[in-house]
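User: I'm writing a short report section on ligand binding and want a predicted complex to refer to. Could you take this sequence and manganese (II) ion and write out the structure as tokens? A short remark afterwards would be nice.
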Amino acid sequence: MNAPAATSAATPMSAFAARRARLCAAMAPGAVAILATAPEVARNSDADYPYRHDSHFYYLTGFTEPDSVLVLVAARAERAAQAILFCRQKNPEREIWDGLRHGPEGARAAFGFDAAFPIEELDTEMARLLANAPAAYYALGHSAALDLQMKTWLGAVRRQARAGVTAPSVAHDLFALVDEMRLFKDDSEQQTMLRAATISGHAHARAMRATRAGMHEYEIEAELLHEFRRNGAQFPAYTPIVASGANACILHYNANNARTRDGDLVLIDAGCELDSYAADITRTYPVNGRFSPAQRSLYELVLAAQDAAMDAVRPGRRYSDFHDAAVKVLAQGMLDLGLLPRAGFASVDDVIAERAHQQFYMHGTGHWLGLDVHDVGAYRDLAQDDKPSRLLQAGMVVTVEPGIYVRPAEGVPEQFWNIGIRIEDDVLLTPDGHTVLSAAAPKRIAEIEQLMRQP
Ligand code: GLY
Ligand code: MN
Ligand code: MN
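Assistant: Sure. The structure tokens for the complex follow:
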């Protein structure tokens, strides 16, 4: 299934407003939801870590300034739902140093809120907004600061009890509602994710083309970052892994400072973040452009496992099915290639039952992908008593990322020692199957070898 051509489509303001309206419709009538964005974090004096807004907050607002809070009031009887933003005031002095601040009125007009206030007025306004509201929705237990603020606001409401004012008597976890919305990507999200994955796929191809034996892993990383940034991606979506040789058997290796050697493989797990959406792609290729026979046989095995997994990525199948499909192929391959002793197991099912495959394949085969690289959303059907793995549906995006990692061990054929391979793609569920968003990254052996032969 081929990926459609990438196009750039920023999310229209109407899409954020529609999400807020859907959330309000799912809340109890008259209930109030509170959601703060992420704080700025100091790195050391006068230098902050690069600012990244909170994903839930962004999903509902499109607003990327720090020190902002969204409050939603669900419709009740004759009163329509309301979306209220609290944000920094305009400040000509600070704007000289740090750039534009929309200010409440500018933000209200540009982002389509019903009202906006300076962030300094949050405490006063919350005491007003929570008065007589039947329920509050917020991120229960996620932030000690917010829990404390809620205590202050509810205290202020309760002090008006003699006047007949009531405080919310029920608190709900806001994330339970928003996580489920974020799991299903709308058209503009799908377009952005395709573009993030396409830029990232081209970055992998660029890294392959640039690789020469003797280069450091960080020089290859620089090729990835160059390609991300020159295409407008704001950040890597997570710290890139550029792992050559035995480093590929360290799952979260990211020192990226070793020198590559002729005859080794390089495993790269890297994706950009574009307009707040993550790509997450892994490719593994030979430093010298030609797979050795041992590398080839393990690579073909992982590719076969990924192909089998992809077959199970379609609406109606369960989330766990594609992992099970990959494990079955990998475990059979481990027996066929002598990584596991044939004599030790009656069948491949026996290998899986004893979890013997986990010596070489110890992680899951995917996760939800979206605003966060490990995106939100339940993996199980929580409405059923036995909470089975949930059914896949159109609009979800998953990664499919089988691998094999062979550490030296007695009984394991030496030709496979220190080979680590993972192949990871980003896959959008469609009504009749799926689309691979990351198809721009070469994956078949012939494709990779041909690309690397080019001068
Ligand atoms: N890059 C993180 C992951 O593959 O899950
Ligand atoms: Mn992943
Ligand atoms: Mn990854």
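A remark for your report: The first helix runs from residue 13 to 26. The pocket of manganese (II) ion (ligand 3) is lined by residues 269, 280, 282, 424 (CB under 6 Å).
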